[in-house]
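Figure S4 source data
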Amino acid sequence: MLNDKKIIVVMPAYNAAHTLRMTYDEVMAQRIVDQVILVDDGSKDETVSIAKTLPNTLVYQHQHNMGYGANQKSCYELALKEGADIIIMVHPDCQYTPKLIPAMASLIASGLYECVLGSRILGGNALKGGMPVWRYVSNRFLTLVENLFLGAKLSEYHTGYRAFSRSLLEQLPLKENSDDFIFDNQILAQIIWHGYTIGEVSCPTRYFDEASSISFSRSITYGLGCLKVSLLYRLAEMNMVSTPLFPKLP
């Protein structure tokens, strides 16, 4: 609890057996997390069996791999059903340090922001932390374009470390979003569409063999998807297209 708000950490998992317990231990070491929800997206390793041994953890399984976006949809739906006031997504591959949970939760609990991101770009140490040069360059390019089209000033749109308020998730049309990786980009565009400012905290970059990462070809598809989302946003803002991703607001 923080300011009498229930904090739930959600973990979208896929073949995370090697790093899950370490991530969980770091999460619970922060002492403000009330519950962990792990959604397994058809893992072929021991992710589920390990998750079921972790105290105060709700484990939900997709019977087959449905995609990263579909996994997040299940995570947020379950967290809301469990009464979460603040929902923080932490990848179980330990790429993002759980030590930022108190800071991110505090920014939401205080009412300053409805969404907070752990940014790998703030602080300027992304490359020193092991981010591949091609990934860094594409991140900066896409972020520049997205800021121009969406009218925001985020340092990056592509971090997987995110915290949300309950009220924010309840009003977003998440079911209209993709079941694939582009879900990450769509939800941030929707938050900006609804008029919210997104907070950011600097997050150390950690790249290692067990850390999950999409392939170069999937990254190209993701990048093109980000550009499409930005274009749809701008066209919807100009009333030139109608899309359920960005519904007309009252």
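Figure S5 source data
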Amino acid sequence: MRIVAIANQKGGVGKTTTAVNLGVALAEKKLRVLLIDLDPQANATSALGMQEVEGESIYEPLLGGTSLANKILPTRVDNLFIIPADLDLAGAEVEIARMPDHLTRLARTLSTFRSDETFDLVLFDCPPSLGILMTNALAAADEILTPIQCEYFALEGLVKIVRVVEQVRDSGANDQIEIGGIVMTMFDSRTNLSGQVVDEVRQHFGRRVYNTVIPRTVRLSEAPSFGKSILEYDPSGAGASAYRALAREFIRRHAPAAIARETEKTHLLESLDK
């Protein structure tokens, strides 16, 4: 199981849009995906048409009140599951901060899933801030996937993410965390600026930047208001095509690691048979 935090401390960059639509696109590819909404605003929850869910967030598991498994809900999308968010999570910021292991509460909560094969992938939709919930997500994740809007301040936001990653490593909470990928969002082919921003980010971050670019479309903006992913709302449109392409690229990037794990498992079984 791989844990990916979809994070950017700047709001309005397509973070939740990417978390929801990438999750749906990967579920279409038969991966079992768990989406954990860590934002008290619960935008990922409502984007999947689950606005009425209350008291089912990760709040209680983080405080040790119940098992994480009790909060997992199915969605209408096959292979996609969610732990929704609610306003209780805003209080968790304060309560977790008082605990001695405040940086690793989420990692401890997820530890039981590390050892089984219930899910292929866990996606965190992180809040647009540098608070306790986001730092917990980075301490629990294997990598960060960072959506970056194709606008002038893109690199400034990336610099801050790099600094946060360094802080999490230096704290000892997660010395393996890295920026695994950067996704350029809200690309407007009608302007020179979008192309210039993409080129500049690729110049600085190289292969970490995904080849797939998410376009700015009206349909992508409309879909959450109907409680649907873009793959349901406009399945043949440019936005859906882009997120399906992103899912394929995501799988290709992680295939070598998956192959290595399977090879290791095969070698272990062979040694036990001898």
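The chain has eleven helices and eight strands. Confidence is low (pLDDT under 50) at residues 259-270.
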